[in-house]
C-alpha cells in the first residue's frame, strides 16, 4: 500500500502532464474515516491526489490535494444557479480573494443530446463532459472538435473481472494537466452526489 507521506521527493503534481497516455485508478472513498472524498492512484499504485469532503455529500466546497495535503484546486458551487455551476480556483481559495476561476463547469439541461452532462470552460477553451449512459458510471471529457481528452469508466482487471462501482479507471491523453482533469472528475462526482 502507498505511503501517505513518503520520504522520497515528489514532483509537483499541480503541473504534471506526460508525453504518453496516463492511466489512474480512482477509489471513491476517503482516506480519512467518516468523511466523503476520493483517492487517486497512478499506474504504479502510488497515491497522487486526494479529495476530502468533511461536510455532507454534494458539499458546496471541496479541495483537491496532492499526496502531502497541498491544496491544488478549491472547487466551489455557485449559489442560486438553476442547473448547477462550479468554479475551480488554483490553490487554497478564499471568498475574500477577487480572482477569476481557473475553470468553470456548468451542468447542461439538453433535451436534444441527453449524453451531454456539462460544459467546461478553461480560460478560452471549451470542453464537454459526455455521459456514457445512465447505467454506466463512465463519462468522457471531449474538446470542441470531439477529440477525447480523458475518459473515466468502471475499473476492469486484465482477467475481465469488473470491480465495484466505487473503483474507476481514468485515462488521460498526452500533454493534458492531470490535476485539472482530476478536478473536473471531482466536479462530476459532486454533480452526481458521489463525493
Explain this structure to me?
Strands 1-2-3-4-5-6-7-8-9-10-11-12 form a twelve-stranded antiparallel beta barrel. The chain has one helix at residues 178-191, and strands spanning 22-27, 36-41, 47-53, 61-66, 71-77, 85-90, 103-107, 116-122, 125-131, 139-143, 148-154, 167-172. By secondary structure, it is mostly beta strands. It is globular and about 50 Å long. Helix content is 7%, strand content 38%. The longest helix is centred in the last third of the chain and has 14 residues, at 178-191. Strand 1 (22-27) and strand 2 (36-41) form a beta hairpin.
Short description:
Helices cover 7% and strands 38% of the residues. It has one helix spanning 178-191; strands spanning 22-27, 36-41, 47-53, 61-66, 71-77, 85-90, 103-107, 116-122, 125-131, 139-143, 148-154, 167-172.
Show the helix and strand layout.
Elements lengths: L21 E6 L8 E6 L5 E7 L7 E6 L4 E7 L7 E6 L12 E5 L8 E7 L2 E7 L7 E5 L4 E7 L12 E6 L5 H14 L4
Antiparallel strand pairs: 1-2, 1-12, 2-3, 3-4, 4-5, 5-6, 6-7, 7-8, 8-9, 9-10, 10-11, 11-12
Amino acid at each position: 500500500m502507498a505511503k501517505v507521506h513518503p520520504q522520497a521527493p515528489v514532483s509537483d503534481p499541480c503541473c504534471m502532464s506526460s508525453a504518453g497516455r496516463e492511466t489512474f485508478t480512482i477509489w471513491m472513498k476517503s482516506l480519512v474515516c467518516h468523511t466523503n472524498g476520493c483517492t487517486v492512484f497512478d499506474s504504479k499504485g502510488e497515491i497522487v491526489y486526494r479529495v476530502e469532503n468533511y461536510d455532507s455529500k454534494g458539499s458546496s466546497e471541496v479541495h483537491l490535494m496532492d499526496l502531502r495535503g497541498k491544496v491544488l484546486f478549491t472547487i466551489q458551487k455557485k449559489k442560486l444557479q438553476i442547473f448547477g455551476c462550479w468554479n475551480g480556483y488554483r490553490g487554497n481559495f478564499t471568498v475574500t480573494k477577487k480572482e477569476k476561476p481557473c475553470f468553470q463547469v456548468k451542468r447542461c439541461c439538453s433535451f436534444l443530446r441527453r449524453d451531454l452532462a456539462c460544459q467546461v470552460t478553461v480560460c478560452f477553451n471549451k470542453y464537454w463532459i459526455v455521459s456514457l449512459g445512465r447505467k454506466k458510471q463512465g463519462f468522457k471529457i471531449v474538446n470542441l472538435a470531439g477529440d477525447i481528452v480523458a475518459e473515466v469508466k468502471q475499473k476492469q482487471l486484465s482477467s475481465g473481472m469488473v470491480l465495484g462501482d466505487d473503483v474507476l479507471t481514468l485515462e488521460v491523453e498526452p500533454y493534458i494537466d492531470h490535476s485539472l482533469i482530476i478536478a473536473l472528475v471531482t466536479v462530476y462526482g459532486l454533480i452526481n452526489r458521489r463525493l
